[in-house]
């Protein structure tokens, strides 16, 4: 027992020294962690500031390019300025849970109401001509009246709604109340879709070689009964699978144009080429030439191209084309290919539109333009006849 106390003291000193060393280790590791955390924060902040500065520079460059385009391509002398009427959805609808997130495409029904497809919300809205909410249809899924990336839509003579459900690779048919009627699988499509009054669906086809047709004609059972249309040719590309727009007039004539070229074709109901128009519009011609040069020099499947037309709307004596850069322009073109009127409105440098509709009465024309960015809404303009 006499020797125990010194031994105990010695052990306590050794243990204390070990504790001190362990505490120093913990302190050292905490200090290292703290330093790395501070460095990480500083690097993140610097990167964030750099990204903000880069984005600011890109935005300034875009504004300069837009201002340059406004001066380089002034409003045509006889162009008609559009009068702003209203836009929707407004705060009243948004408070009720009706707002657009990814609204892409529009169509009228036979009663003059408007259907709007929202590819991000996977639903379809139905509103009247004043933008008043009538109905919301659909949700995300694979069942009846469920969608996965709902895209194009149109109505038939029975007022049924024909919907291209892109992610599920099918077409769904709903009645005017939004109730499910039938659906069928459809492959190798995705660029555009319209319906005629005889119960046939015309859809843009993707290409696997240069000789593949542009448009397929389907019945309501999903059978492709015919196809037509020759693709554009480019020196360095093995095929011309480029996105198109489709529209149909009351004569069941099909009007086709490309996103990236100022060319419009008119086909008969049976797919016979009736006319081909090259739109004589300065910026469209110049951008089309640049796009052709890009596609002629590269085999890249996703080259950077300038969008020339946002969509086309056919009528019995011609068609309308929508552009949104550097300003909103609606070109009214006759069956002779001549531009009869240009309607225009100011917009911001970052404005993007994705579709439009036209409604007329005895005194005015009303243009419903679906804005995609920076806000997702429908802007209504008018012009005196």
Outline the secondary-structure elements.
Elements: H1 4-72, E1 80-81, E2 83-88, H2 91-95, E3 103-108, E4 114-118, E5 123-127, E6 133-137, E7 139-140, E8 146-147, E9 150-155, E10 161-165, E11 170-174, E12 180-185, E13 189-195, E14 201-205, E15 215-218, E16 224-228, E17 244-248, E18 254-258, E19 261-267, E20 273-278, H3 282-297, E21 311-315, E22 318-323, E23 328-334, E24 339-345, E25 352-360, E26 364-373, E27 377-384
Parallel strand pairs: 1-24, 7-8
Antiparallel strand pairs: 2-27, 3-4, 4-5, 5-6, 9-10, 10-11, 11-12, 13-14, 14-15, 15-16, 17-18, 18-19, 19-20, 21-22, 22-23, 23-24, 25-26, 26-27
Short recap of the structure:
Helix content is 23%, strand content 39%. With 385 residues, it is of the alpha+beta class.
Describe the structure.
The protein is built from 3 helices and 27 strands. The strands form 7 sheets. Strands 1-24-23-22-21 form a 5-stranded mixed beta sheet, with no helix packed on it. Strands 2-27-26-25 form a 4-stranded antiparallel beta sheet, with no helix packed on it. The protein has 2 domains: 1-72; 80-384, 6 Propeller (Neuraminidase). The chain has 385 residues and is α+β, with helices and mostly antiparallel strands. The termini are far apart. The chain is globular, with a radius of gyration of 30 Å.
Count of helix runs: 3
Question: Per CATH, which architecture of the largest domain?
Answer: 6 Propeller
Approximately how much helix is present in the residues? 10-25%
Shape: globular
- Biggest sheet architecture: 5 strands, mixed
């Amino acid at each position: 027992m006499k020797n125990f106390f010194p031994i105990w003291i010695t052990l306590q000193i050794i243990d204390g020294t070990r504790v001190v060393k362990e505490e120093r280790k913990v302190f050292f590791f905490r200090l290292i962690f703290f330093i790395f955390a501070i460095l990480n924060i500083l690097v993140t902040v610097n990167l964030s500031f750099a990204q903000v500065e880069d984005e600011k520079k890109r935005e300034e460059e875009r504004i300069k390019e837009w201002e340059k385009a406004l001066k380089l391509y002034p409003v045509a002398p006889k162009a008609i300025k559009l009068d702003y009427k209203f836009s929707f959805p407004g705060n009243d609808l948004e408070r009720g849970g009706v707002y657009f997130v990814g609204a892409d495409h529009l169509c009228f029904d036979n009663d003059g109401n408007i259907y709007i497809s929202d590819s991000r919300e996977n639903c379809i809205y139905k509103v009247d001509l004043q933008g008043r909410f009538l109905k919301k249809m659909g949700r995300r899924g694979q069942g009846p009246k469920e969608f996965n990336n709902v895209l194009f839509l149109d109505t038939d003579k029975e007022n049924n709604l024909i919907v291209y459900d892109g992610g599920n690779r099918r077409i769904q048919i709903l009645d005017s109340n939004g109730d499910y009627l039938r659906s069928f699988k459809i492959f190798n499509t995705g660029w555009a879709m319209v319906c005629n009054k005889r119960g046939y669906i015309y859809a843009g086809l993707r290409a696997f070689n240069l000789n593949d047709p542009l448009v397929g004609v389907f019945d309501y059972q999903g059978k492709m009964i015919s196809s037509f249309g020759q693709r554009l040719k480019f020196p360095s590309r093995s095929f011309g699978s480029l996105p198109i727009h489709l529209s149909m007039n009351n004569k069941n004539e099909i009007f086709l144009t490309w996103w990236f070229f100022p060319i419009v074709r008119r086909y008969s109901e049976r797919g016979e080429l009736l006319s081909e128009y090259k739109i004589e519009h300065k910026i469209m011609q110049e951008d089309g030439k640049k796009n052709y040069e890009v596609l002629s020099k590269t085999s890249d499947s996703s080259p950077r191209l300038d969008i020339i037309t946002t969509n086309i709307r056919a009528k019995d004596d011609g068609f309308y084309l929508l552009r949104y850069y550097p300003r909103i322009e609606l070109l009214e073109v006759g069956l002779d290919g001549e531009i009869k009127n240009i309607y225009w409105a100011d917009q911001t440098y970052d404005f993007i539109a994705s579709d439009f509709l036209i409604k007329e009465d005895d005194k005015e024309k009303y243009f419903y333009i679906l804005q995609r960015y920076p806000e997702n809404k429908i802007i209504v303009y008018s012009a005196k006849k």
